[in-house]
Design goal:
Shape: globular
Number of domains: 1
Order of helices and strands: HHHHH
Distance between the termini: 30 Å
Structural class: mainly alpha
């Protein structure tokens, strides 16, 4: 495939991303920030010597990280307008059982609401409409 075609697709996805950011007035963390935040959040979440509010903050930060990653994919692939618009709603769609310590997960359920199955496939942390595979073309509703 000529490089100008892939360059054109890349530019189109970047334009879609910037358009979505402006429209939603939301700019996901860049990759480096996301990875730094995830690492620190996992440390907070799993450190049982820390007070519960600190561990819960780690859990919420992780939810934000995975929300940003999922939203960025939605923005780049053109289905951002259908994607959940906030971290709390998105966070309830991901099955965190087994990933978060039970005590922190129970507290997050109390604060943010319980898990809502059926929105995100399996152990994925990407929201996609009607379970479209990440990277597939999205045809809209």
């Amino acid at each position: 495939m000529p490089s100008y075609i892939s360059d054109s697709r890349f530019l189109d996805s970047q334009k879609e991303y910037l358009f979505a950011c402006r429209k939603l007035n939301y700019y996901p963390w860049d990759h480096e920030t996301l990875e730094d935040q995830k690492q620190r959040a996992w440390e907070l979440l799993r450190d049982t010597s820390l007070p519960m509010p600190t561990r819960v903050r780690g859990g919420r930060t992780l939810k934000r990280c995975y929300f940003d990653r999922s939203m960025r994919a939605a923005m780049l692939d053109g289905y951002w307008s259908d994607h959940p618009k906030n971290v709390k709603e998105f966070g309830r769609m991901v099955n965190w059982e087994g990933a978060f310590p039970d005590d922190v997960l129970a507290r997050l359920y109390e604060l943010d609401g319980a898990y809502m199955p059926g929105h995100i496939r399996g152990l994925s942390t990407y929201w996609v409409p009607n379970y479209v595979e990440v990277g597939e073309e999205y045809e809209g509703n």
